[in-house]
Amino acid sequence: MNIERITAGYLPELPGLREAELQWHVLPFERGGVRLEVSVPLLTGPQMHALAAHVRRAADRHLRAMPVAEIIDAIDRAIARLLDRSDPYRRQAETWLPVVSGYDADMVRLGLTGFFKTFRAAQLRRFVAEDFANPAVLDGFQPAPKGGAVRAFGPDLLMHSWAGNVPALSLWSLVCGLLVKAPAIGKLASAEPLFAGWFARLLAEVHPPLADCLAVVWWSGAGGVDGADGADGADGGGAAALHAEADTVLAYGGNQTLQALRQRLPVTTRFLPHGHKLGFGMVGAAALDTLKAPAVARLAAWDVMRYDQQGCYSPHVFYVERSAPVSARAFADYLAAELANLQRRFARRPLELEEGAAVARWQQSVEWSGDAQQLLGPVDAPWSVAYSDSLQPLAPTALYRTIAVVGVDRLDDAVPVVAAQRDYLQTAGIAASPEQLYRLAGLLGAAGVTRISAIGSMSMPEAGWHHDGRFNLLDLVRMTEIEQSAEAAAQPFAPYAD
Fold first, then answer.
1. CB-based contact 249:261 (threshold 8 Å)
2. E-assigned strands of 364-477?
3. Window from 43-47, 348-352, 460-464, 472-476 with minimum mean pLDDT
4. What CATH topology corresponds to 278-463?
5. What CA dihedral angle connects 133, 134, 138 and 143, to 10 degrees?
6. Which residue in 92, 243, 407, 487 has a CA-CA distance of 20 to 30 Å to 192?
7. End-to-end alpha-carbon separation of the chain, Å?
8. Is the pTM of this model over 0.85?
C-alpha cells in the first residue's frame, strides 16, 4: 500500500508554536490502495492562550485597518487560484479531498468549482450588501438615517468549529469572519481536516499581512476541560483555553455535538450553531408533462446525488402532485432511472458497516410497510427510491442516495406534515408555476422553511444566502451608535465654536 503524509492546519510563526514544539495527532484515511496520514496540531492550554493573543494583536495591526473592499480583493485572488486547476492548492484539493471524504473524484472536482465560484469579488460585494445597507459601516462610522452615526465591529476573537460532511465547507465561515474583520481560530473536523489549513496558507501568500490573523488547529470531539470527549480524548488543554478566549463561536455539526459545545462555553459567549436539517422538494402539476417531468427528475437526482445527501440542504422527500399527465409514480420511476445513470458517472462512496446497516434498515422499513410504500429498483443498488401514494410525514431517510417520493392531490396537503418538523426545516426545492411558487413560499415560510430554491439547486446555495434564516454577517457584529445628542453636545467644544 502506498502511504502518503500531509501536515494539516495552519499556525502563524510564533515562539512556542513551531512544529517541533507542538504535539501532533495523526488522522488516517484509506482509499484505492492509498493510505493518507494527516498530522494535525494539538495545542496545550498555554499554547492556545499565546496563539489567541497573537492573532488578536495581528488583527488590530492589519485586518481591522483594511477596508472591506481590500479584504474582498484578497479573498478573490485566493479564490482565483483555487479555480485554476493547474494551481498547486487546487491540485492538492482534487487529489486528497476524495481520499479523506470517500466521494467520487469527479463529484468533488465539479462541487469545488461550483462552490468556489460563489466567492468571487462580485458575489462577495453582493454578500456584504445583503446584510448591510451601507457596507462602509464595516470600515468606520457612517451617518445614520435617524441622525448620529453607526459602525459595525466584528468579534474580538472568532472561533470556528467545522463539520466534515462536505469538502471545503469551512470556506464559508472563514470568509464570513474575514469580511467582518475578526481574528479567528478554527477547529478542524476529523472527517475533513485539510481544506481550512490550505485556504489559510493560500490567503497568507496572496496577502501576507493576513498571515498572522488566522490559525487552524484540531482536537477531538467537543473538547471538554478534562479532554474526555471524542474517540480518544485527544484535547491537550487547548480546547478549554479557546472556549474561554473566544467571544463568538460559529459552529457546524450534529445536534449532539453542538449541544456539548454549547455547554462548554461561558454564558457570555455568542454561540451561532448550524445543526442537522431536513430538506425536501415539491413538484407541481405544471412541471409534470411528458417533456418537463424527465428534466425535473434529472435535476432532482442531482440534488440527491451531490455528496450523497450529506449537506444540510439535501432532500429526503419529494412531494409530487398526482393530477398531471405524468403521474407521481412515473416521476418516481424517472428519478430512479436518473439515480442509476448518475451512479455510473459519480459512484456513491463505499459505506462503512454502520452506514450500510442504516440503509438496509430503511429499505426494510419500506418493504414492511405493506401497501403504504414501495421500494423501486434493485435492493442491492447503491441508491433507493421509495414511493408512496398516500401522504407520508417528512422524515429523514438513511442518506447515501435514499429518497422518498410521495404522491399528493395538492402540494398544499403536504404543508402540515412539513410544519411538524419546524425545528429542522431549512431548504425546499420547488418546481411549480410562478403563482404556485409564491403561494407555497408563503405557506412554507410560515411553517419554518428558510430557503426555497429550484430543484437541481438545493445543494448549491447562492452567495449571501441567509443560512438557517439568519444574517451571516450581521449576526457576527455588534453595532456602536453615536447618538444625535452626542453629536450636538460636541459642537460647543469644537475649536471653531464661538
1. yes
2. 374-376, 384-388, 402-408, 425-431, 451-454
3. 460-464
4. Aldehyde Dehydrogenase; Chain A, domain 2 (3.40.309)
5. -120
6. 243
7. 85
8. yes
